[in-house]
Design goal:
single chain; globular; binds calcium ion
Length: 134
């Protein structure tokens, strides 16, 4: 049975600073945004959607709502948080893949999801807050 999933991306916190060094802008902190997509049996289902960029903060807040049609409860939501850079490729700040059933249903039961470290960046840290309607 397929559903329409509405996800609201609330906030992230404790994100790493990916704006240090040669290619940084002068402001000195990451400029985070979130890319969301549905994964079904390991493959992308539907199109990727993004939050706006929050400039220069390790603790961004968004509040944007995203709708994904035709999802199944066995699907997963992948969230990648990236640092927007005006030069070069945006840096990955953290990622998480959650079964849809593990995304909390309303704000009162909101949990922070710890981001998953990556082999290339073992110092990943941070967490992400989401709620859903299904
Ligand atoms: Ca950067
Ligand atoms: Ca940046």
């Amino acid at each position: 049975m397929s559903h329409q999933l509405e996800v609201r991306v609330l906030a992230a916190s404790d994100l790493r600073n990916a704006d240090q060094g040669m290619w940084s802008n002068s402001k000195g902190n990451s400029d985070p945004y979130v890319c969301l997509k549905i994964k079904r049996k390991g493959r992308t289902f539907g199109r990727e959607q993004q939050t706006p960029v929050e400039n220069d903060t390790p603790n961004p807040t968004w509040g944007n709502r995203f709708t994904f049609k035709g999802v199944e409860m066995s699907d997963h939501l992948q969230c990648k948080i990236k640092d927007h850079d005006s030069m070069g490729t945006d840096d990955l700040l953290g990622r998480i893949i959650l079964p849809l059933s593990q995304i909390p249903l309303d704000r009162r039961t909101t949990t922070w999801h710890a981001l998953v470290p990556d082999e290339e960046n073992p110092n990943f840290r941070g967490k992400l807050q989401l709620v859903r309607n299904l």
